[in-house]
Amino acid sequence: MSTKSVITDDMRAVVQAAHLCFAATVTPDGKPNLSPKGTIRVWDDDHIFFLDIFSPNTRANLQSTPFIEVNVVEQLSRRGYRFFGRAELHIDDDVFREATRRIYGEEGAKYPVEAVVLIKVERAEPVWSPGYIHTRTEEEMRAAWKERRAALDKEFEAHVEKEPFRPE
To answer: pLDDT, tens digit, for every residue of 127-144?
Structure first.
């Protein structure tokens, strides 16, 4: 008996290219909480994970209600996936050690990690930009957004020169 993996090769490629996701949880009083995560990766055929570097609200929400939705979109292609599932928090165990080893090795940097959020993907749905109504191919979409991205970066660089961000 073979089981089909939830996470496809395309999903893996999008997650690897993006490295950024937005994770949606629910507060204990039923309010939404959306938080960016810059360490999203595929764990195996049925799980994704991210490092909880400084996400006390996400962690508290998951301790109360383990349901999570994670959105990952590759910026130039304007397509990605919504991953739905249940999260488990891992602290100072084998999952924690393996996840931090992977991220530290890939990024060459270490972060103060509170927990690893391991998500059992129960369902995944594609996300794509309405821009594909007017753009015939992914190659055209990527080319258009490379050009647009360069213009947006130039604008933002001018802003940063005037008002640089300084974390406190």
So the answer is: 999 999 999 999 999 999
* pLDDT, tens only, 54-72: 999 999 999 999 999 999 9
CB distance 72 to 40 below 8 Å:
yes
Query: Same structural domain for residues 32 and 73?
Result: yes
Q: How far apart are CA 104 and CA 126, in angstroms?
A: 29
Q: Are 124 and 155 members of one domain?
A: no
**pLDDT attached to residue 109:** 87
Q: Which residue ranges in the chain fall short of pLDDT 50?
A: 1-2
Of residues 139, 52, 136, the one with CA closest to residue 96: 52
Q: Is 119 helix (H, G, I), strand (E, B) or coil?
A: strand
47 and 118 inside one domain: yes
- The single-letter code of the amino acid at 76 is L
Write down the number of H helices and E strands in the chain: 4, 7
User: Residue 162 is part of which domain span?
Assistant: 130-168
Number of domains in the chain: 2
Residue 5 pLDDT: 80
Chain Cα centroid distance, residue 66: 17
Structure-block tokens of residue 149: 């991205």
